[in-house]
Batch of 2 targets.
Target 1
Amino acid sequence: MKNCFLTGLLLLVCLPFVFGQPVSPEPHYKIYKGTSALQDRIFYLFTLLERVPGVTQLINKDSTLTALRDEYTQRITHPVSSGDFTAPLQFAGSTISEVSSAFITLLQQHPKEMEQLVSEMRSSGLFQLYAGKTDPVLLSFAWKDAADGVNYILNAYTNGKGLRYPVIDSATYYVMSPAYKAMVQRVIEDAGKKKPDLFFQPSLHVALELLTLNRRDEAVRYEPLSDTNRDAYKQIKKTDWNKYPYTAMLILGASPVAKEAISETGKSRCRTGAELYRKGMAPFIIVSGGHVRPVGTQYSEAVEMRKYLVNELKIPASAVMVDPYARHTTTNVRNAVRIVWQSGIPAGKRMMCVSDVMHVAYVNSPMFTQRCTIELGYMPAADIKQADLYFLSFLPDLRSLQVNVFDPLDP
């Protein structure tokens, strides 16, 4: 699969055309709304392909892409009765390369409509890892990510294989049980009753329904965050940033070990953060942590930490924002950078990261940098400086806006 795509990329690099100048992400970019909030959050490229004016019509005039639509329609309307139900719906490496080539042809032949598509991609920031690439390469990388992400969900939530974090991200049910296989079969049959407009829709619909079937909708439970953090977002507009050494204070979450709402470690980190807040170190606190442990918990670490800060430690509610999604330290930092950018906090100034001694040391270690590079493709925190045993500071890296299709519970 990888070799096919790389071969296609070599051709892209040699292409003599480049569309438009790179567009910086817009802080207040308005997301197109598709048929599914999960789709918008995980697979925004597919939403754009469905919603940007003229693009759907172009795709449906392309012989390669219409042939693929008919092929995948056939696959979903005639599902296998046993074995690996979703294997025929996955995108093979040859298919990924074929689609990439078709998109490049559309870019060449229909620059007006396709430039609008690429402009939306760049403005959204959700493809920021490829912002420095030419339009053809940007679109090819984004398409490959989306295809690989669909494959990831189809494989993980039917076979239980390939999960990056199997302990906390697995299916709700035992995937090998006859009852679960029957449910998957029903999902495919229901999806087969819908007439797809575009080639990727049969596979995409099944992938999203598998997440819904397993109640793994964590990625959209608190959207939009501008509403979840409404009071703080209003306060940001009134803030004199020159009064504070740092723009925001990230407090890293800690999962409970049993059924309690908040862990003792989480409380301790909140107390440290509250003390630093009262010293005037930063005007806002971002608490970070999702529905992680125990698996299926009703509690979000961040939501419970905000309650503790506001109700017990008497921090003003308008000073506390939640990132209720992060499942790892890597995404604690990444998601805090996203909140800084999207809320209007100055992204060119330093922010803090607060935790216990060993955790802070880990964030400031080569091990953490390596893990971020492997799992995210970049380091979300730049120029880290440890100022104290309990906190460090860093500059936000806007590559953090990049959506991660391999973490569908917190993309």
Target 2
Amino acid sequence: MPATRTTLRRSLAAAAALPLLAVALTACGYGSEAKDNDKVAPAAKGEKIGDLDEVKIGYFANVTHATALVGLQEGLIQKELGGTEIKPQVFNAGPSEIEALNAGAIDIGWIGPSPSINGFTKSDGQNLRIISGSASGGVSLVVNSEKIKSLDDLKGKRIATPQLGNTQDVALLNYLSEKGLKVDANTGKGDVTVVRQDNKEIPASFESGALDGAWVPEPTASKLVAGGGKVLLDEKTLWKDGKFVITNVIVSQKFLKEHPDVVEAVLRGSVKTNAWIAANPDKAKASVNSRLKADSGKELPAEVLDPAFKNVEIINDPLASTLRDEADHAVKAGLLEDPLLEGIYDLTLLNKVLKAEGQPTVADAGLGVK
């Protein structure tokens, strides 16, 4: 790649990421530490992996992060790590988790594709690798049906996303652009007003009438429906075969280089967790709820948890080809120019684990480390 193009990409990516950085730095300590609870994952015990005391893992309190929620709650990931203790941190959205990864506050994280792309591009491919898939689907546009009766009624309305530049924010901006509706990506102002608000706050704003709708992941989408909202669009209907990456697993390149055995252990725990979820869906759903209660102090009622859990597909495949599309969406949305994708994946350890578990290996769509 010519040096001039690399320099241009760096400058454009950095410029696009500045508002994301500003938002991320407002998050207290990047993310909140998961609360201690008797029902949460058992303590580390046994021999440490590579003599490492701890591994710092980030995730969201979303059903789309069920692998992390269940894997931590049931101790399936900790079991693979032996005496190397998991230090969990909970985030609201991806940009703040990327900043935590860059700062060394976490080593491994469950996160959406758009922040992964943005973070990788901003660092010119130096900060992270995507090492596994985790979930597909689980995102909907939920609206006040009295104000928005069809997709042609979005102009002039206020629609929320969890954070500027997060995966749902990019998806909404791209969709509005395809509908011919103009929105300034950074300010959220335009034919539609895009309101960036914490997932925890969106349901109350929606019920108060401050929002006309929201493009959000589970369980926020099902919370809005339980509060009287209507699903106007399930994002999976916009994708070929109804599949698109919503959650993948990333690791800092420094940690991957220094502690590949720990990363492999986490991936082994992730793959075994996904198999456990598939074999025990009802127990897994209860486990998700227990972890959410441990992290936030609140369980989800059945009318929220049941549809939320049903709407998310738990997978190991990172669906790498859909990452290309999501990068294109970020460009169309005005959040990135010339995103860097080459080398964003390293699926070597995941495929090693999958082979050992007798499962099919997965592909990186030509975007892996050469």
